[in-house]
Amino acid sequence: MSKYKVVLIPGDGIGPELTEATRRCIDALGLGIEWQIMEAGECAIEKYKTPLPEHVLEAIRKSGFAIKGPITTPIGTGFRSVNVELRKRLDLYACLRPCKSYKGVRSKYENIDLVIVRENTEDLYAGVEFERGTKETSELIALFEKFSKKKIRDGSAISIKPISVEGSKRIVKFAFDYALANKRRKVTAVHKANIMKYTDGLFLEVARDVAKSYTGKIEFEDRIVDNMCMQLVQKPEDYDVLVLPNLYGDIISDLAAGLVGGLGVAPGANIGEGIAMFEPTHGSAPKYKGMNKVNPVAEILSGVLMLRYMGEKYAADSLEAAVASVIAEGRDVTYDMKNDRFDKTAVGTSQMADAIIKKIKSRG
Length: 364
Ligand code: NAD
Fold this sequence. Notes:
By secondary structure, the protein is of the alpha/beta class. Helices cover 42% and strands 16% of the residues. It has helices at residues 15-27, 42-48, 54-63, 82-89, 135-148, 165-181, 199-212, 225-234, 246-259, 297-310, 313-329, 349-363; strands at 5-9, 34-37, 65-68, 94-100, 113-119, 129-130, 158-159, 186-191, 219-224, 241-244, 267-271, 276-280. Helix 1 (15-27) links the parallel strand 1 (5-9) and strand 2. The longest helix is centred in the middle third of the chain and has 17 residues, at 165-181. It is globular. Bound molecules: nicotinamide-adenine-dinucleotide. Nicotinamide-adenine-dinucleotide (NAD) binds at residues 70-73, 83, 263-264, 279, 282-285, 288, 294-295, 298, 336.
């Protein structure tokens, strides 16, 4: 019997090509993973009348591991984002996005090695929003004015920013435990507690409290989010693991992906209690669907994160080294990794995976 059963969701657009490339690379490592291929997204709507069938969630809960391709969010169909829904329904509260420089990737920076830990369930992303001009919104505004003694402009829309002790504690603890397990040096909590004293103030207070249990093992500091943006652009080498509430985490992870060469090389993981789902940061790029053209690296590096999460260090190191080596050589890479996007020597998604597999095999 296989040691691991992994749910593989090919997804939409370029997803099936990328997950197939990733599956082949992981299979070449010889771990004997049993893949459970399941449909979610546009392809599931016709068959199951929903883009996220219940049996897919059940399979992920049972196996504990899932790797997925990007899923398109259909506009104007009434279906919510499957990606957000998956994170919510499985309570995958930690979004982990390592941003690391690989030699050969075009970027303004070198030697970046940052890890962004984003809270995935609270904050302005909780979806508690009230449209302008409705009766409920007017009633809420009247109530807020009564309690806060502050005037809210007529016709305003309202979004609520919930930040809890429990939500903050588990994400900060996750960041510190990740730092310890991965021999990192420092955790920086990012916030705007000088302005949002109660919500971000709570996040910071909890972060300081959690940090005390790691004294002498992992350094701790905090930064105000606007200052953090400037510091990351000016001296990213000063930072290591960053932990942030949901919205700042969303923005800073894209900034950090930009420092290392963009979406094509940005992997991600969404982790909860005993369940983890791995996916690239980029979307389904529908215009490239079925063209065997796009870069499989972000999806394959998401596979590396999965192997690390499983504790398969040797396999993870081998796959990452093979990817790094193919990128550094710059020959068997997709069009977006060439200096000129129209370079005729660029290879397809599947051929880049072949080159990575060849490297894995040559290392033995
Ligand atoms: P996108 O990431 O699909 O595309 C943005 C740009 O990046 C495009 O120019 C695209 O061609 C390029 N790109 C993306 N991945 C690439 C790769 N692997 N190699 C080379 N180039 C690549 O973003 P979008 O166009 O805003 O979104 C398309 C769809 O994806 C939407 O329906 C969106 O909701 C969905 N989406 C899904 C996820 C997810 O599944 N987690 C994340 C983001 C967006």
